[in-house]
Write a structure and sequence with these properties.
Chain lengths: 593, 391
């Protein structure tokens, strides 16, 4: 930049010499500079004013264009914009092994109020209380007048109720769409399905979340939109489940039992085809969990999975099978069964005297505690514990139920020789009926390990070998004989070759010791014994068969007839062909005379 | 010379006042403004009966009031537009002092009419919003400061104007009235820009404003709620914006018909901040585009006339007033079409309201005074040989 001196010194000096007033020259100079500066400023301002004009012209044009766009759009019904992320309400169905619906969704409505839009809160509250008897008019009115702008009245309402609320005609009563979980079969398989309730709720939809059972276990799968609505296929067979529950319910009543449980398992795949626990509940109206008392008394309690019981003599077959597999005995080996067997201050006795010696088979058939304990002494605690471990009786089952995942059998910390003897006939160890079903399946299916599952399995993947096939066959033969000539004679079902083992265990008293007249009676059965397909466990809690002069509580009188009836009913449903004895040859009567 | 100044008979030399005014005033702008007046009255007919019925008054009560205000405003407009630039400056300085005192005293004597911001004085027969009157006065004063800074050895006018702006903006934010604060800030920026500020500095200021806006967003719930409503891609139909959008869509190109509109019954600000929604619904896009065109005409024409203006003060003040007027209209219209977040800003000459109308008339009157044709010393240029090109 060229710097111009403020005072034109040359001219000033000249003026001084000429005697003129230099002030005038300075003034003139200043004025010229001022003028130049203003000119520069004006020219810059000119271009900037043009810029400003263009800016405003564009701004107004933009508004005009936007107005045009808006005005040329057809007005749509105003929609309240969802402020939160969309709630995925679609939940996959749950179906049984044949594809029949166990759980599905139903479109319904929720009812909510916007009190600031209500015309007559008092009358509306009154009418609402008439439509929904569980609501109280005063309470509702208080809520309407509390200054809140939004409140839920009912989460789910029926179409009839919706119409009645419509008829109130209050603009402040509004409906939101809802997907609700529906269990069309009611109480069937309630413990397996569990239940669902609403999670996050919005006006336009609500999240359905599983709260128990497979609904909770597979919550992520069921809610995952990536599955494209693929249903969850369970191993349950709906008709079998229905028959099993019906028989169990009848049996429980007939045997005056407090509660009952049953498990029907495929011996090769471990699939649970039916499983029930009584008393039960309706998953559509899931009851509240008990806040006091024993959780095991709640209908929510799944006895087949969560209940840990001393299952008694049903364990004897494990002892026998292990002894045979180890080659210690064969089925015909004679065992000293002279009782009582005294160990320290304990005495082991049999239900009745069976004589001094019995074969291994007869120890099982007659259910001799003394004989079993003697066999277990030969096996030893170490090996017994290991064997029960491989059968899965000492840890949690991998069952796909949230309730069952942490149910660990109870067994003594110190596996003493006394424990070995009592555990050999099922005392001093508590397992769930489900554990027992899995262990029986492993024993009878030819000797490969089975893990219980609730998911439909298409292929059979044999687990690791537990016992040899021969031992398995021998065990089946013993179980069959228990039915044909032993403690479970009521278990015979013509054509299904039922085999099984009874178990009657005194119930432990929470105050210590055992109850005199309260038992858990169990029948663990396999059918058909010659070609095993299914294991069925039936457990009755505190049964008493009262047809005789004295109440009979042993499993042979209580659990066994129930199980037999169950097999009679479900055998055909499972598609098992009864193997009937061939009929006598029909004589041809010659009618020609 | 002496007898011409002292003791002379005040003889009218040349033209009488009114014909000269008519000859020199920007007649196109004047006509556009009068058209806006007319549309304002028309829309008062449409939009104010619901308010009257809500307040239990006869249907055209507010129309009559608006008529009275219109006459008053028209008088103000004409009188102000006859002022000389010097008179505008003096008027602005005194007016600013008064309006500023009124603004400061708002928290003590003001009322908020239940709208969450104390912006009004209730005089019984009308509500006065001091910030409306403050704006044109502020422009007149600040233009003086900036123009003065261009004198050699002049006062540090720009710095003073900046401080003044900050103080005024501070008081407006305290109300809170972010719309007016932003408008003042923007107008000052435009005047500073026209007054020859460096682009770099302006960009820095823009950045600072953005920062201040972010700060306000984080700290003021009032502010944050409106910005959120603006940024959300969906319109909640229960908000003013939802109603406005719906009204514009209902109106279509030719409107639903006079008196047939429904938005004015449901929208509480239909007669003021969302008057354009009423216009769009009842008279359609046609009227809206006419309104926009009128605003654009006034703005662009005034700015282009100011290009010729040599007097720095007139140029700056004129540009500032134009910007004030244009920006206010733009913000109001922009809110309705969701270019801008919701702000309480009236539409000059069209919105119902005495304060707004009078202040708009004042602004426009001052602007018309400054854009009048005046001798610009072109003859001197020719005489001195300082034409354009080598200045």
């Amino acid at each position: 930049m060229k710097r111009v001196p403020l005072r034109p010194l040359a001219r000033v000096l000249k003026a001084r010499k000429d005697g003129e007033d230099p002030e005038l020259i300075e003034r003139e100079n200043l004025a010229r500079r001022h003028e130049e500066m203003r000119d520069r400023q004006r020219q810059r301002a000119e271009s900037r004013l043009v810029v400003a004009s263009i800016f405003f012209a564009l701004a107004f044009s933009f508004v005009g264009v936007k107005m045009f766009q808006l005005a040329s759009v057809e007005p749509a019904e105003p929609q309240i914009a969802a402020t939160t992320a969309r709630i995925v309400a679609q939940r996959a169905n749950i179906v049984d092994r044949q594809g029949r619906i166990l759980a599905t969704n139903l479109s319904t409505r929720s009812l909510y109020a916007q009190p600031n839009m209500m015309t007559d809160p008092a009358a509306s509250a009154q009418r609402l209380a008439e439509i929904f008897p569980e609501l109280e008019a005063e309470k509702l009115l208080k809520q309407f007048r509390s200054g809140r702008t939004f409140l839920w009245i009912k989460r789910k309402i029926s179409p009839e109720q919706m119409q009645e609320v419509h008829d109130i005609g209050d603009p402040g009563l509004l409906f939101g769409p809802r997907e609700m979980r529906l269990y069309p079969n009611g109480r069937l398989a309630a413990h397996i399905l569990g239940g669902a309730s609403f999670g996050r709720e919005g006006v336009r939809s609500a999240e359905v979340v599983g709260v128990a059972g497979v609904e909770k276990q597979f919550d992520n799968f069921l809610r995952d939109p990536a599955n494209g609505g693929r249903p969850l296929e369970l191993s349950i067979d709906l008709t079998v489940q229905d028959a099993a529950e019906a028989v169990l319910r009848g049996g429980m009543k007939l045997m005056n039992a407090k509660s009952a449980a049953t498990v029907l398992m495929d011996v090769y795949t471990g699939e649970i085809v039916a499983m029930a626990s009584l008393p039960d509940f309706d998953p559509n109206e899931r009851p509240r969990p008990l806040t006091e008392g024993d959780a095991a008394d709640s209908p929510l309690f799944n006895r087949a999975v969560q209940g840990l019981y001393e299952l008694g003599s049903t364990f004897k077959i494990f002892t026998a099978a292990q002894a045979l597999d180890l080659g210690l005995f064969n089925p015909a080996s004679m065992i000293n069964t002279r009782g009582p067997l005294v160990w320290g201050k304990f005495k082991i006795n049999d239900f009745s005297k069976y004589g001094p010696v019995l074969s291994v088979t007869d120890v099982i058939v007659k259910s001799s505690n003394v004989g079993t304990a003697r066999i277990a002494q030969e096996i030893g605690g170490e090996r017994q514990k290991e064997f029960l471990g491989t059968l899965g009786l000492l840890k949690e089952t991998p069952i796909e139920l949230v309730e069952g995942s942490h149910i660990k059998p109870l067994w003594p910390d110190k596996w003493t020789e006394l424990s070995t003897m009592t555990i050999s006939y099922g005392h001093g160890i508590s397992t769930s009926p489900l554990h027992l079903a899995a262990a029986y399946s492993s024993i009878v299916n030819g000797g490969t390990k089975v893990e219980p599952t609730l998911l439909k399995t298409d292929e059979v993947r044999p687990g690791p070998r537990v016992i040899s096939a021969e031992t398995s066959a021998a065990a089946r033969s013993m179980l069959r004989q228990v039915v044909t000539r032993g403690t479970a004679s009521f278990g015979e079902v013509e054509g299904y070759a039922v085999g099984g083992k009874t178990g009657t265990a005194d119930k432990p008293d929470p105050k210590g010791g055992y109850y005199e007249n309260k038992v858990i009676s169990t029948f663990a059965s396999v059918f058909p014994a010659n070609d095993p397909r299914y294991v069925l466990i039936v457990t009755l809690d505190e049964p008493a068969e009262t047809s005789g002069p004295e109440p009979r509580r042993t499993a042979g009188w209580t659990a066994v007839p129930v199980a037999a009836e169950m097999i009679r009913r479900i055998g055909p449903l499972l598609g098992i062909r009864p193997s009937l004895e061939p009929l006598d040859e029909i004589e041809v009567v010659d009618v020609r005379n | 010379m002496t007898e011409m100044v002292y003791g002379s008979v005040p003889v009218q030399s040349g033209d009488p006042v009114l014909p000269r005014w008519w000859r020199t005033v920007d007649r196109i702008t004047l006509v556009a403004v009068l058209a806006l007046f007319g549309i304002g009255t028309l829309l008062a007919l449409a939009a104010s009966p619901p308010l009257a019925s809500k307040n239990g008054l006869e249907a055209f009560y507010y129309v009559k009031r608006q008529g009275v205000y219109s006459v008053l405003a028209l008088t103000v407009l004409l009188v102000t537009s006859m002022m000389s630039p010097d008179a505008v400056r003096r008027f602005g300085t005194v007016g600013f002092a008064l309006a500023f005192v009124a603004l400061i005293a708002l928290p003590l004597f003001g009322t908020d009419f239940g709208k969450g911001a104390t912006r009004w004085y209730s005089l019984g027969f009308m509500a006065v919003q001091p910030s409306e009157f403050l704006k044109p006065m502020f422009v007149a004063l600040v233009a003086w400061f900036i123009a003065a800074a261009h004198q050699l050895n002049g006062p540090p006018g720009r710095m003073i104007s900046l401080w003044l702006t900050m103080i005024v903006v501070g008081f407006l934010v305290m109300q809170p009235d972010f719309g007016q604060a932003g408008l003042i800030l923007f107008t000052w920026g435009v005047m500073y820009f026209i007054g020859g500020a460096s682009i770099l500095l302006l960009m820095a200021l823009a950045g600072l404003t953005l920062f201040a806006g972010t700060f306000a967003y984080a700290n003021s719930e009032h502010f944050a709620r409106r910005i959120d409503g603006f940024l959300s891609p969906d319109i909640d139909p229960r908000t003013q914006l939802g109603y406005a959008t719906n009204a514009i869509q209902e109106g279509g190109f030719f409107g639903v018909g006079v008196g047939e509109g429904t938005v004015k019954w449901s929208l509480p600000d239909a007669h003021t901040d969302f008057i354009i929604a009423v216009a769009a619904e009842e008279f359609g896009l046609v009227l809206v585009l006419i309104i926009i065109l009128l605003y654009m005409t006034v703005t662009v024409r005034s700015l282009l006339r100011l290009i010729r203006e040599r007097d720095m003060y007139a140029r700056l003040a004129g540009a500032g007033l134009t910007c004030l007027f244009a920006m206010q209209a733009f913000i109001n219209l922009g809110v309705a079409v969701r270019i801008l977040p919701a702000k309480g800003m009236t539409l000059p000459f069209i919105s119902y309201g005495g304060s707004s109308l009078l202040a708009s008339a004042l602004t426009m009157g001052m602007l018309l005074a400054l854009t009048r044709t005046r001798p610009q010393g072109e003859i001197g240029d020719h005489l001195l040989g300082r034409g354009r090109g080598h200045g």
